Amino acid sequence: RLRCYEPAxxxxxxxxxxxxxxxxAEEATQAVNAGGEGVGLLRTEFLFLDRTxxxxxxxxxxxxxxxxxxxxxxxxxxxxxDIGGDKAAPYLDMPAEDNPFLGVRGIRLCLARPELFRDQxxxxxxxxxxxxxxxxxxxxxxxxxxxxxxxxxxxxxxELGARAVxxxxxxxxxxxxxxxxxxxxxxxxxxxxxxxxxxxxxAMDRGHPVLAKQADGLHPAVLRMIDRTVRAAQGAGxxxxxxxxxxxxxxxxxxxxxxxVAELSVSIPGIAAIKAQIRxxxxxxxxxxARRAVACRTAAEVRSLPL
Length: 307
Ligand code: PEP
Ligand code: MG
Known about the structure:
It is built from 13 helices and 9 strands.
């Protein structure tokens, strides 16, 4: 009766997973109640912001464990700390930067603060004992960063005697798209962060008071990057999700499904609507829309394509 709890199947039976973006422990339950098929992006920054010292391993474990329990067997993708850029934690004493979005942010910060990173990885591997947890690294731009992060994860796993966990990266920097073949060989999945990818592809600050409205994730330059990413992943047998804002936009969701994106991770209130949108389409129709969108010249042209 309540269609939000049913899978999102297209007219021809093609399935797209619809999961939630969350940023608080109690939102795991809300995601399930809204029909989410899991969590595609847990933003862990909430554990680190607005305080005077970093959270302990124990505190983090308690939060992740609570979410794993609330999800009751549904997958939970935990993104490691993505601080820096527009988010700061005073206790980290980070030197001021002229261009923080191009600075020590995300995985770069974690690699620069191995004690911080290690505590988070330990908490994640411990929580993974209780359900299907996956690890995702943000702001990966170079293979060296992924290698260093993976080796820290492997070390932690070995120390704990923990079971293997799927590891993925966010694709949100143009170099990661260009190197997608190489990255795909090193990870289990990709999740495209179109909020940042748009900012870095169009060279427009995502929070800029004047430019932000032009920084549209449906810009064909961004869609072509997504297309390229999906094709590289598929070539290596990896799946791709999208967790940026366009996954929760009806036209965006249709285009992404047509490009071969397997999982859409959206805010909790958007879950039912995105499932409904997927059900209105056939894969062939979505693919046709995606082909036309990728061939557009401007975001306005994409926005005016009939759905
Ligand atoms: C993104 O960049 O698209 C994303 C989902 O991550 P955040 O918005 O947390 O940077
Ligand atoms: Mg991002």
